[in-house]
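Q: My hope is that you can spare some time for a protein that puzzles me. Underneath my words sits a plain record pairing an amino acid chain with its backbone structure tokens. Those tokens are not coordinates but codes from a learned vocabulary of shapes. Thank you; the sequence and its tokens follow:
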Amino acid sequence: MQAAMSSRLTVVLLALMLGIQPVSSDLYLPTLPILTQEFGASMAQVHMTLSALLLAFGISQLFWGPLSDMWGRRPVLIVGLIAYVAAGIGCVVAPSIDALILWRTLQGAAMGSVVVCARAIVRDLYAPDIGARVMSKALTGLGAIACMSAPLGAFLTQAYSWHAALSAVSVFGAISLIAIAWKYQESAPKTNGSIPPFKELAKTWWGILKHPAFIAFAGLTLGSYGGLFVFLVTSSFVFIGVVGLSKLEYGLLMCSMSFVYMLGTFLCRWLLVRYGVARSVAMGGVLSLTGGILLNISAWMQWHSVIALVGPFYIFILGHGIHQPCGQSGSVGPFPQAAGAASALGGFLMMAVAFLMGLWLGQQGGGAVQGMAWGIGFWSLVTSLTAWTLVQRIGLKHA
């Protein structure tokens, strides 16, 4: 397998697989204010088009992960990507906000197969310490894709309509499908391909959930992603509705955020080589908490400018670029024969938190800026405490 598929090709394919998530969300973000007007929908309903996608994405991984362990990554990827493109077409022609929520839910369920396989493939091919660096390279590619997604979505929405932006999501899925079908070769360990009884599957899940390394590294990933999700959901309302940016200016702002995330992944690789996982994650925790505190100060002082609001988040997202490669590779590291199941559980927990945060944000009456600051501040605290305690004391000992 390794001789047939080079490390460079592996990183490119992983970037496409992982990049499907920001394409599904970031490219779509500039359309949110338009949807409230065109469908006459409430902010809570529009938030649901994103939250439902992420909830379905999280739940579906619980099924896709074990299936990829039993049948292999390739068939799960092909089926999932075909379903993703089909659901994307449904989103484009949706006649109402309820129909759009339904199609986005199905698209999220299909997306789960792609991302869960990507994380599992890293464990299939690499030991955990090398896997963190490979994952960091793939997430650099994800950052590049995310950097292009928001400006493209803003341009398509402003020049044409939200239909054009969602069409671009389907096109990306089709490109990924062709690349995987053409270049990816199976990496999963050989199994008999039979579906185990649910009791046995539940036993596998429980064994993963209680493993100290999984608790530590999945907690790190969950906290860091929680802060990112809060920003993604609230950013268009803050920077377009409150600050007064145009859709294109907002897209460029999101691109700059993705660029800083890419810098974080480069910083992650530099730190890993020199200091190892434990100290790298601890340094990332400093960045996360600093960003969360500064953002809340800006909100409290009512400094509603681009620099005051996005500057602190740059610091947070720099730490995010350190935590995600280490957390995602570390949480599946102890499970070479069940990498799909471990990846699925980690992804499910992240999306469950994202769904709950989406509901919470939709009910906030204090304003978009306060909701963004409070949410990111909370998750920055969770991330830093996990990095300084669980990862240091438990995760590395049992990894």
Remarks:
- The mean pLDDT is 86.
- The radius of gyration is 20 Å.
